[in-house]
Model the fold of this input.
Amino acid sequence: MELRSFGKTGMQVSVLGFGGSEIGYDHTPADTVDSLLNTALDAGLNVIDTAECYETSEELIGKTVFHRRDEYYLFTKCGHADGFELPEWDPRLVAPSIERSLRRLRTDHLDLVQLHSCSTQTLRKGELITALVRARESGKTRCIGYSGDNDAALYAVTCGMFDALQISVNIVDQHAIDHILPLAQQHQLGVIAKRPMANGVWRFRTNPPAWYVRPYWNRWRKLNDAFHTAGSDAAATALRFTITVPGVHTAIVGTTKPPRWRENAALLAQGPLTDEQYRAIRDRWHAVASSDWLGQQ
Done:
């Protein structure tokens, strides 16, 4: 699997990474996660991304692949007050949250800890960032980052304090490509693309039942022509588009089904899109996208 240099961090990350939200929220059985993650590691994936608020995700990852810790980069997130008697985004949450993540993940260090989608106002106060910097200085984490979109992501990139950014980048969510990723490249940030498969909007013939899919589905209906210019396989086109975007280093895909990992890896067999395919999708976005088509949190 292709490896890319993750900004200035020195990490060489696989272009396809594993997102741990689904296994946590779905309380996927440990034996299924064991098969899923070990198969992925065997095939060359070396990025696992999770968060302390993804319910059982950290525990499942720690239980199933702790013995292979030197084969993957481990990313998590913090900032929520789950399990602590403190307000959300209180700087005092950072250190104990990281310690809890280390215990759950059965490791003595993390490769990246990210603030999890807090507001621009919260970032500007500085205390949370300072707490993360202390964690990096103590060796608890190799790098620090921000996970989020729009104005908060822009501030995270330009403030000069972070090593990495996780942001929405996909065929129906291209705001960051124009407004944030060029600056992330200038600042040499490692970039993680979340939702690279656009929530699989092409699967729905009518308005999806899940509220978080509907905005993407509405955009998809207007952008659909762009898919046809890039090939008949919507899933492959979507994933290949995201890894073609300049400045993206790894695309995080979540699943609870072990065979899906192989399917996702196979979608990338052809590598990035051609210049013509990529430009057709970008041109369609610029022709159709409304000013309110911002990054989806």
